[in-house]
């Protein structure tokens, strides 16, 4: 799930579309451990990244891309991303072991902030496939290519809108250049998750999983 979202909210589209289209698959939706300070008890939201202080996006705007402040903020973000990836690896290890499954049977999907973890962890584990939607966000500003596995057999499906202001197309394409990737760009769509993206992701997964 994305920033300030929850497993419950994220699972609604998954249950409606993907569960019906993948009747023999196990679908599991993890939830980030850190609650966002601006969410409410009635509608709690969570974040995968808990670094203190301003994010690199804001620091870049205030101090410039070549400032020491920006460099520190990127290093801090990378430490936080690595820590979150370790937590997701542990959760996946336990979940797969519990159900007698392997990475070769695993497809990860992530939206926005969640797509950062899906891409990095999926590439590291050489999983069956990874779907990123509304992401990977700020791949260039956050220098996320430097966190990607140097070699991976994981195929990707990237689904984004042409008007998504946080998805930097060229840096994202560079980040995934060494991966087999199916690209979908929805004309006029911003940072959103239209219903048809569920269908796009489902069709891709069905193709990867076969029978």
TrEMBL record:
Domain of life: Eukaryota
Entries under InterPro entries matching the protein: AB_hydrolase_fold (IPR029058), KANL3/Tex30_Abhydrolase (IPR046879)
SUPFAM superfamilies (UniProt xref): alpha/beta-Hydrolases
KANL3/Tex30 alpha/beta hydrolase-like domain: residues covered: 90-194
Protein name per UniProt: KANL3/Tex30 alpha/beta hydrolase-like domain-containing protein
Organism: Zooxanthella nutricula
């Amino acid at each position: 799930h994305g920033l300030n979202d929850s497993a419950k909210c994220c699972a609604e589209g998954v249950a409606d579309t993907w569960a019906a289209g993948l009747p023999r698959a196990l679908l599991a939706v993890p939830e980030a451990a850190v609650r966002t300070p601006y969410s409410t008890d009635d509608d709690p939201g969570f974040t995968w990244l808990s670094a203190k202080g301003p994010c690199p996006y804001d620091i870049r705007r205030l101090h410039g891309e070549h400032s020491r402040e920006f460099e520190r903020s990127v290093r801090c973000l990378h430490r936080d991303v690595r820590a979150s990836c370790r937590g997701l690896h542990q959760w996946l290890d336990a979940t797969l072991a519990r159900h007698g499954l392997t990475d070769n049977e695993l497809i990860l999907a992530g939206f926005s902030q969640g797509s950062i973890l899906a891409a990095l962890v999926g590439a590291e584990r050489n999983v069956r496939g990874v779907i990123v939607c509304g992401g990977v966000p700020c791949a260039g500003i956050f220098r996320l290519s430097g966190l990607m596995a140097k070699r991976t057999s994981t195929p990707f499906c990237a689904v984004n809108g042409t008007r998504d202001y946080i998805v930097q197309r060229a840096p994202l394409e560079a980040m995934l250049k060494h991966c087999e990737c199916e690209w979908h760009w929805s004309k006029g769509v911003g940072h959103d998750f239209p219903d048809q993206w569920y269908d796009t992701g489902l069709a891709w997964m069905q193709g990867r999983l076969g029978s």
